[in-house]
Every structure is written in structure tokens, then in C-alpha cells.
From TrEMBL:
CDD domains: HTH_XRE. PANTHER family: CYTOSKELETON PROTEIN RODZ, PTHR34475. The chain crosses the membrane at residues 127-148. Keywords: Membrane, Transmembrane, Transmembrane helix. One of its GO terms (molecular function) is DNA binding. Residues 84-106, 157-191 are annotated as: Disordered. Residues 8-69 form the HTH cro/C1-type domain. Residues 157-171 have a biased composition (Polar residues). The keyword Transmembrane helix applies. SMART domains: HTH_XRE. This is HTH cro/C1-type domain-containing protein. The lineage of its organism: Bacteria, Bacillati, Bacillota, Erysipelotrichia, Erysipelotrichales. InterPro entries: Bact_Cytoskel_RodZ, Cro/C1-type_HTH, Lambda_DNA-bd_dom_sf. Residues 88-106 have a biased composition (Basic and acidic residues).
């Protein structure tokens, strides 16, 4: 599929554009444009719809025929799938032949000669075995009898001379009281710390939420667990968010970023496929509705309020 990528790269160079400049014009990440120019379409298997959208944006920015470029991509993907199917059929045929060979192969059953019992020609061994068993049983009985006799005589000779079960004096409870006080202080500190990071969410509309933070909150931790492969972009107060790059994430990927809230008014997360994705602020999940959790192309807007 490299011919299509080379054609796009050639057109970009003719326009005198760098990959970064083309990225700004198309709102696509540098990584996506570089993959397309290198013909690495196999990385986007299953995301053909997104690739077509990327190609239309690039074709429009480079004054290329959108339909022609899209159709060239469709033809190439069909060719690749046909080659993959042919290779899979070939491997299946080889596996079937190998399985048939294993079924046809049979081991010869060995001919074992039966042999009589070990005692068949040595009858005196039976008597020896009987004597050994009787001796072992006698020894076990003797050991048990000796153990019971010793235990009984020991218990009869035991005498208790202590007849007082009372204790006099003062009990010092100061240490226990101090320990209880420390536990209460620890619980108060833990409750105060939890209250300082507590976040409440208020739904303003579809994918629009207000997060209410304590008054003295200086930063929050954003965490996203992706439920599907998608392209994601981040912005804070309308500008790029430092520390988080806009790119493609795979299902199961997790990103975390601490965000300064002293000047934060609005946090925006754009997603090309939101299905199954979960969002957290200070490890508290944003309560998306069932309908929002199943939506694909979304833009989550979080406004900040402090109590």
C-alpha cells in the first residue's frame, strides 16, 4: 500500500508543506499522516472508516481528488484481504494434510508375555510376610500402651498449690487512652484529606459536566481508561494540554495527567470512538449516562467550579 502513501507525500512536497503544517491544516496528528505516507495502513485494520475520513481531509488540504484517493485505498485494502485469505487457506490446507498424516500413522501394539505371581514358585514368602505383619502390630500396641501408662501416672502426680485467683493493685490505663486518642486523630486527618480531594459532578447536558472542587484545590488528576481504539485530542481553556498528546489510543490503554486548577476554566476531551471509555477525576468516575457510554464521536466538556 506504499504507492498511495508515496503519492500523498509527493503532493505534499510539491505544495511545500511539512508534515507538521499539514497536521495543522487537517487537524490530524503527525503520527497518522506519517503512517499514511509510509503506507502503514495495516496498523488501522478494522478502522477503515476513520482512514477514509483521514484521506478525505488530506486530499482536500492538498487539492487532490478525494473520490479517487478513497477508491485507491479501498482497492488496496481489498487486495490485501484477498492475499490474507489466500495465505490462510493455504495454511489451513497444510494443517489438514498434517492432521491426516497423524491419523494414518499407527503404533504397533507390543506383545506382552504374562508372568505368574511372585509367590507362585516361592510359597515360603507368604509365611514370612505374615510374621512381619504380626510383629509390626505387636510393636504398635506396645508403644500405645506405654504412652497411655506414662500419661496417666503423670496426671496423678500433678499437684496445684496456688489457691489464690485474685490480684490487687491499680491498673494503669493511660497508655490505652493515649493509643485511642492517636487513632481518633488519625481518622480525623484521613477524613480531612478525603474531603480536600472530594469532587462532585453536575450534568449540564450531553457530554457536558461541571466538576465542583473544594475551594483550596490546586490541582486534580485526570485518568482515562479507553474502551475502544480511537483518536483522542485534549485541550484546556481552548489551548493544547501540556503532558497529553493528541493521538490514537488502543482499547485498554490508560492515561493519567495532573492538571493545575488555579487557572483552569474548561477541560475538553475529543474522542473518535467513546464506546466503553471511562473518565476519572481524582479517582472518582464521571457518571456518564448509558447513552453517552455507547456514543462514538464525542466531545466531553468539563467546566470547573469551586465551593
Amino acid at each position: 500500500m506504499n504507492n498511495l502513501g508515496e503519492e500523498i507525500k509527493k503532493k505534499r512536497l510539491e505544495k511545500g508543506l511539512t508534515i507538521e503544517e499539514l497536521s495543522q491544516k487537517t487537524m490530524l496528528s503527525v503520527a497518522i499522516i506519517r503512517d499514511i505516507e509510509n503506507g502503514a495502513f495495516n496498523r488501522y485494520e478494522g478502522d477503515e472508516t476513520y482512514v477514509k475520513m483521514y484521506l478525505r481531509k488530506i486530499s482536500s488540504a492538498l487539492d487532490m481528488d478525494e473520490d479517487q484517493i478513497t477508491q485507491a485505498y479501498v482497492n488496496l485494502t481489498q487486495q490485501l484481504k484477498a492475499e490474507e485469505e489466500e495465505e490462510a487457506n493455504k495454511k489451513a490446507e497444510e494443517s489438514e494434510q498434517e492432521l491426516q498424516k497423524r491419523k494414518d500413522f499407527q503404533f504397533e501394539r507390543p506383545n506382552y508375555n504374562t508372568k505368574g505371581s511372585v509367590y507362585a514358585d516361592k510359597p515360603h514368602l507368604k509365611y514370612v510376610r505374615g510374621i512381619i505383619v504380626v510383629v509390626l502390630i505387636s510393636l504398635i500396641c506396645a508403644v500405645v500402651y506405654i504412652g497411655v501408662s506414662v500419661g496417666k501416672s503423670g496426671s496423678e502426680n500433678t499437684k496445684y498449690t496456688n489457691t489464690s485467683n485474685t490480684a490487687t493493685g491499680k491498673v494503669n490505663t493511660k497508655k490505652k487512652s493515649s493509643t485511642a486518642t492517636k487513632k481518633k486523630e488519625t481518622k480525623k486527618k484521613a477524613a480531612k484529606k478525603k474531603a480536600s480531594t472530594q469532587v462532585t459532578f453536575k450534568r449540564l447536558g450531553t457530554f457536558q459536566y461541571q466538576m465542583v472542587l473544594p475551594k483550596d484545590t490546586k490541582n486534580v488528576k485526570l485518568k482515562i481508561v479507553f474502551g475502544a481504539r480511537c483518536w483522542v485530542g485534549f485541550s484546556a481553556n481552548g489551548a493544547s494540554l501540556n503532558g497529553l498528546s493528541s493521538k490514537i489510543y488502543n482499547a485498554g490503554d490508560t492515561v493519567e495527567q495532573t492538571i493545575d486548577t488555579t487557572t483552569l476554566r474548561q477541560l475538553t476531551v475529543r474522542s473518535g470512538n467513546n464506546t466503553g471509555t471511562k473518565y476519572y477525576i481524582n479517582n472518582q468516575q464521571i457518571p456518564l449516562t448509558d447513552a453517552e457510554s455507547k456514543m462514538t464521536v464525542t466531545r466531553l466538556i468539563l467546566t470547573v467550579a469551586k465551593s
